[in-house]
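Give me the 3D structure for Alpha/beta fold hydrolase.
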Amino acid sequence: MPLVAQSHYQPPFYLFNGHLQTIVPSLWRKVPDVTYQRERLELPDGDFLNLDWSRLPPRRPTDGLVIVSHGLEGDAQRPYMRGMVRALNHAGLDALAWNYRSCGGEMNRLLRSYHLGDTGDLDTVIRHALSTGRYRRIYLTGFSAGGNVTLKYLGENAARVPAEVKRAAVFSVPTDLRASSIHIARPQNQVYLRRFLKSLRQKIRDKAALMPGQVEVEGLELLRDFPQFDDKYTAPMHGFASADAYYAHASSGQYLAGIRIPTLLVNAQNDPFLPPSCYPREVAAASEFVFLETPTAGGHVGFPQGDGEYYSERRAVEFLTAEVPA
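Predicted structure for Alpha/beta fold hydrolase (326 residues):
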């Protein structure tokens, strides 16, 4: 019964609610001591991914790599990504922070972009890393949208997952996308929703400029929530009949029972993004592999501790490097 009975996370006293634990790390955290080497990975469909590697120096070779997946409209430079990469390097592991299509500072080439159920690109990144011949152990970690993609990848077809993929740890994951899209539209969450929609609208404008006549921008400013945006853009651009059809396909909660490697899911109880359906306690209780930890605090992609390293980073290192489930 992999329910983590007690979480050891305690936030700093001055970050006393989920909104502060979400916003302060996002806006003010700095992680300067991470250096990436970028690789352009060309894809079979004519598109590309930008991969940001952080490898240990030659005097400290490792056969272990952690692939880190970012959140919605994020990239490898976000503080939570850089903080995780730094912690993994300190633990003796190489890290690969990959940027989704249209993320990482460049618009992708195709009409399609990325979506929260697209596991094909993650599989491509994993197999590319293995093709280097450097790694015998692959670990996965992800935040929010990246956590959803990771969980779906592991559970939708466990036989597809390479044997070198040993463990995973994900944080702040909206495992029920339809319920989450409604939850984030609540009045107290409008600050987050507006920020996401501003970024998504700009990408639609950029894509329309690159592809005249292929992207409709009329009415773009009138879209006020995720279901409206996803119904007009995300769903049709990626082959779904509607936003609801997209959510039904992409939500990772339905795939958790299929996971066959030790996987830690940490969702804070005060996460402003997550509705009750994103705390899959019954699934975890029945699983040999899914470890659910629900600390009372942490916010969304937060978990600050006040000493430079965050709880999510310590917990990921602890779980991924453990010899037995914890």
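The mean pLDDT is 95. Let me know if you want a second pass.
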